[in-house]
Amino acid sequence: MSFADAAQVRSAQTSVPAPREQSAAVQDAVAGLAEVERATGALYEVVEGLDLRGPSLLPGWSRAHVVTHLARNADALVNLLTWAKTGVEHQMYPSAADRDADIAEGASRLPQLLRADLDAACQRFVAFARDLPPGAWEAEVAHPKAGPFRAHRVPWLRLREVWFHLVDLDAGVGFEDLPPELLERYVEEVVGQFAGRSDVPPARVEVVFPDGRQRSWGLTADSDASPAVSGAAADVLGWLTGRHSGARLNGTAPTLPRWL
Questions:
Q1: In whole angstroms, what is the distance from residue 162 CA to residue 179 CA?
Q2: What is the pLDDT of residues 15-28, one digit of tens each?
Q3: Superfamily grouping for domain 3-173
């Protein structure tokens, strides 16, 4: 049995059961975890036959760095769920330096060890999440950059991490391959990350979604009078998250700071 086949079997065995009565927080967490398992299956399929020593789309990172980061991110989110469960503060990473050192060290391992590490970390996250007491999903935890939020958002953070870094593996998956509802969610989330920041240039963003709908946002409060930057949702998301310069868009796309 291949890595992908074995991992898919384990993922199927850890599907999150739905309680008879669910709070809004539990419903949100359960929905997020179901999406995480589907996205993780796609991740396994891509990583299975991939040259992990090849370059990723992230400057200075090989695909091995991306895979290691995905494994350590799963463990970091278990830390947040531990915080939610116990009420004792448990940050994602001891420090940014420790995070970077773990990724650099892990990326040097043999491909089979990288795949095994990724599988084990993904399974730890799902297993811990499915056993979390319902009330813990209401607890407040904190992201080192985005600040405090409720624990029921943790599965959605993991989902975003998996999809974005699937794109970064440069293995044939692009933002256009995201489920349409997630594509719109992520554009809105990233735009929201820019709101209120003094280092963001004024820009009006007009987005066309796969179903033909159009939406627009201002990146800053004074963006309404700015020339529009427009394009397909996948291309806009790539620009907003720094995956490309904006050359694929209509209009002059300004250089943006890191979104997160």
A1: 13
A2: 544 445 689 999 99
A3: dinb family like domain (1.20.120.450)
